[in-house]
Design brief:
Blueprint (H helix, E strand, L loop, with lengths): L3 H25 L1 E2 L10 E2 L5 E5 L8 H6 L4 E8 L3 E2 L3 H10 L3 E7 L7 H11 L10 E4 L11 H22 L4 E5 H8 L8 E4 L13 E10 L8 E6 L3 H14 L4
Parallel strand pairs: 3-4, 4-6, 6-7, 7-8, 8-9, 9-10
Antiparallel strand pairs: 1-2, 3-11, 4-5, 10-11
Helix pairs in contact: 4-5
Length: about 260
């Protein structure tokens, strides 16, 4: 009898702690799936979770990633007119082997007369298999892509991005998904690319349907912690459930032309 009392107290303590965690997350508007994602807070109402990675994330244990409930992964393939991510081949193969829905993205560099060349660089390395995520292009401000208020430069950047988009479409019959942040969206993308699905980075708020009518994915964190990745990792959610996710993939699968 005396040996059982500590266990009862321990059980009571765990029970009370679980209640506290539940109400804490309920009040914050987030939930934690402690059965799979032990270190990642998922925004309430989302169930299709993904990551995006590059060589900066180092070697990845994709089996561990899959075991934590990650459904999809975008992998960096190329950058600019000639750069190839050194880990993209291994990442793509290992993610696919572990039954993660996988796709590739290109990091776009603002450079005069470079849109078509960057698209060809991406297409030369693209490994799309039917059922994969659609190809994506990362368009954001960075040290190599500085923001400007010069209207002529902005028009030139839009023209180059249009060249990238039209080159991909002419070869594959699909428009690439556009990854971007709020500033780039306002400057370059809004009203200019209505046929492209949007993958929006916003670390504070869920995308607004009125402001971003074509958003399908939301990157809400750069600091995710997952077993199998030593560094922090970007975390994303699909806008709807698994059935809608599969329908979205099927739409691209039917349109894609392999050549």
């Amino acid at each position: 009898m005396h040996r059982r009392r500590p266990k009862k107290r321990l059980f009571l303590l765990i029970f009370l702690l679980a209640i506290a965690v539940y109400y804490c997350n309920k009040r914050s508007g987030n939930k934690i799936d402690i059965s799979k994602l032990h270190h990642v807070v998922i925004p309430d109402g989302f169930s299709v979770i993904g990551i995006d990675v590059s060589h900066h994330n180092g070697d990845i244990n994709w089996k561990a990633i899959r075991a934590q409930g990650i459904v999809f992964a975008y992998i960096k393939a190329t950058e600019g007119e000639s750069l190839m991510d050194k880990n993209y081949t291994d990442n793509y193969r290992a993610a696919k082997t572990n039954r993660i829905v996988t796709g590739m993205y290109h990091f776009f560099i603002f450079r005069k007369d470079g849109g078509a060349k960057q698209a060809l660089c991406f297409l030369n390395k693209l490994r799309y298999q039917r059922g994969d995520l659609p190809p994506a292009v990362d368009v954001e401000y960075s040290p190599s892509n500085r923001r400007t208020m010069n209207k002529d430069i902005i028009k030139e950047r839009i023209r180059e991005l249009n060249q990238f988009d039209s080159t991909i479409y002419s070869r594959k019959h699909i428009h690439p998904v556009l990854y971007t942040n709020k500033e780039c969206y306002e400057d370059l993308i809004r009203d200019n690319f209505p046929k492209n699905d949007l993958w929006l980075c916003n670390l504070s708020d869920m995308p607004d349907d009125y402001m971003y009518p074509n958003w399908v994915m939301w990157q809400y964190s750069h600091t995710g912690k997952l077993e199998g990745v030593k560094s922090s990792v970007d975390i994303n959610v699909f806008y709807a459930g698994k059935a809608e996710f599969n329908e979205w993939l099927d739409m691209y699968k039917k349109a894609y032309v392999a050549n």
